Amino acid sequence: MNVNIFPSSQTNTPPTNNDGSYAPVMIYFTGQLSIPVVHNKGIRPIVSISNSIGEKIEGQIFYNNLNNFTVSFNNPQSGSITYT
User: What gap in Å lies between CA 49 and CA 8, rounded to an integer?
Assistant: First the structure.
């Protein structure tokens, strides 16, 4: 699976802003049908999906629990997932 997560972190703690709110996280993916995401926020984050040229695309978002979700597509897609 070709998936890159930015900002990268050496811990499982979600990145935060100076005010303690969660910072947006962007995950890049290439040719994927399904992307599992572990965020460890204890919430169902707001999720946005874009293709490789930055256009918003639709995907199925399944919240497995309050600490992870999975994005799925009917056909392989490349692009990014942003969540806060």
Answer: 19
Q: Dig out the tokens for 35 from the structure.
A: 């992307």
Per-residue b or e along 37-72, where b marks 16 or more CB atoms closer than 10 Å to that residue's CB? bebebeeebebebbeeeeeeeebebeeeeebebebe
Host domain of residue 70: 3-83
* DSSP per-residue string spanning 37-81: EE---SS---EEEEETTS-B---EEEEEETTEEEEEEEEEEEEEE
pLDDT, tens only, 37-53:
999 999 999 999 999 99
Number of domains forming the structure of the chain? 1
Determine the longest span between alpha carbons in the chain, in angstroms: 39
